[in-house]
Design a protein that fits this description.
This protein is an all-alpha fold and 122 residues long. Helices cover 61% and strands 0% of the residues. It contains 6 helices and no strands. Component of the ubiquinol-cytochrome c oxidoreductase, a multisubunit transmembrane complex that is part of the mitochondrial electron transport chain which drives oxidative phosphorylation. Belongs to the UQCRB/QCR7 family.
């Protein structure tokens, strides 16, 4: 059952998943974003912790992409076509660190240790 569900969302196996991935890619390219830029650190504290562990240059580049995307959106414009061609929307920079943070949190919970951070509603 799990392999069937994975085949439904795998772009290499499912035409609709491939079509959706292409659509998301085009929308991200228009604003110069990467898929990992869409994660909100206020929504999930694991994401906030993963961003804190990344090198400063990576976080600064993320913030710059988000600022540029907001600026373009407010102006109702897109990146020029030559810059859109250079974008890599699915190059991940956060997934490995996020997986590490989630594994560490799960290990702490399994050992009965206190969590490093508590969920608070902002």
């Amino acid at each position: 059952m799990a392999s069937f569900l994975q085949s439904l969302v795998d772009p290499r196996k499912n035409f609709l998943a491939r079509l959706h991935m292409k659509s998301v890619s085009n929308r991200l390219r228009r604003y110069g974003l990467r898929y990992d830029d869409l994660y909100d650190p206020l929504y999930d504290l694991d994401i906030k912790e993963a961003l804190n562990r990344l090198p400063r240059e990576v976080v600064d580049a993320r913030n710059q992409r988000l600022k540029r995307a907001m600026d373009l959106s407010m102006k109702h414009e897109y990146l020029p076509d030559n810059l859109q061609a250079l974008q890599t929307p699915f190059r991940s920079y956060l997934q490995e660190m996020l997986a590490l943070v989630k594994r560490e949190r799960a290990e702490r919970e399994a050992l009965g240790a206190l969590p490093l951070y508590q969920r608070t509603i902002p």
